[in-house]
From TrEMBL:
Keywords: Flavoprotein, FMN, Oxidoreductase, Pyridoxine biosynthesis. Binds 1 FMN per subunit. Gene3D superfamilies: Electron Transport, Fmn-binding Protein, Chain A. It is an enzyme of class 1 (oxidoreductase). The gene is pdxH. It catalyses: pyridoxamine 5'-phosphate + O2 + H2O = pyridoxal 5'-phosphate + H2O2 + NH4(+); pyridoxine 5'-phosphate + O2 = pyridoxal 5'-phosphate + H2O2. HAMAP family: PdxH. Its EC number is 1.4.3.5. This is Pyridoxine/pyridoxamine 5'-phosphate oxidase. One of its GO terms (molecular function) is FMN binding. The keyword Glycoprotein does not apply. Residues 32-157 form the Pyridoxamine 5'-phosphate oxidase N-terminal domain. Pathway: Cofactor metabolism; pyridoxal 5'-phosphate salvage; pyridoxal 5'-phosphate from pyridoxine 5'-phosphate: step 1/1; Cofactor metabolism; pyridoxal 5'-phosphate salvage; pyridoxal 5'-phosphate from pyridoxamine 5'-phosphate: step 1/1. The lineage of its organism: Bacteria, Pseudomonadati, Pseudomonadota, Gammaproteobacteria, Alteromonadales. GO terms for biological process: pyridoxine biosynthetic process. It comes from Psychrosphaera saromensis.
């Protein structure tokens, strides 16, 4: 079968300007809860897109760790490619692909680093193996083999075998402060529903909504 022949209709629901919440984060929380209740695999998984100094975009999947009216939170190695790119360009885009519900959410905004206190609070809440992995991996940097990575992991395991593990100074979180958020609901005949929230530039606290053509 040719790839061009693979298609299906989207007919699970509709989305109107009247039905969505006044604030995009309220609408996001509703959709996220529905994705969790639907037992979707990895409902908090999101594609994180950043841009390097030469204008080359890059993407990767990261897990959302918090969301509220202030934005979206994720954590990473601060030496990683995404963290280094965000150091030079704070602009970022997130994408939540909830295929089973025929929904997407796309976020446009800028990041701000989390405080040391917030980084520590989340780090100590992680399983010990995840804490050790953060210490063992120089994320995005070349390594000679997986064997070397596992050897480093075992060394960290021995080093921190007693007591609480400290938070690495090369590890931390970012909050994505959105200025635009798009909600996409699949529709019949490819006539999808798209509602875009844009932050009102006059007061920077309220949001305007508009429908986009599919």
């Amino acid at each position: 079968m040719k790839l061009s022949d693979l298609r299906r209709e989207y007919c699970q629901g509709e989305l109107s300007e009247q039905d969505v919440a006044a604030h995009p984060m309220t609408q996001f929380d509703t959709w996220l809860k529905q994705a969790i209740d639907a037992n979707l695999p990895d409902p908090t998984a999101m594609v994180v897109a950043t841009v390097d100094e030469e204008g080359q975009p890059s993407q990767r999947i990261v897990l959302l760790k918090d969301s509220n009216e202030d934005g979206f939170v994720f954590f990473t190695n601060l030496g990683s490619r995404k963290a280094q790119e965000l150091k030079h360009n704070k602009k970022i885009s997130l994408h939540f692909p909830w295929h089973a519900l025929e929904r997407q959410v796309i976020v446009y905004g800028e990041v701000e680093p989390l405080s040391t206190k917030k980084n520590m609070a989340y780090f100590i809440s992680r399983p010990k193996e995840s804490q050790l992995a953060a210490w063992a991996s120089k994320q995005s940097h070349p390594i000679s083999s997986r064997t070397m990575l596992m050897e480093t992991f075992e060394r960290m395991k021995h080093k921190f075998s007693q007591g609480e593990m400290p938070t690495p100074d090369f590890w931390g979180g970012f909050r994505v402060k959105p200025n635009k958020v798009e909600f996409w609901q699949g529709g019949e005949f490819r006539l999808h529903d798209r509602i875009m929230y844009s932050r009102n530039n006059l007061d920077n606290t309220t949001w305007d909504k508009q429908r986009l053509a599919p």
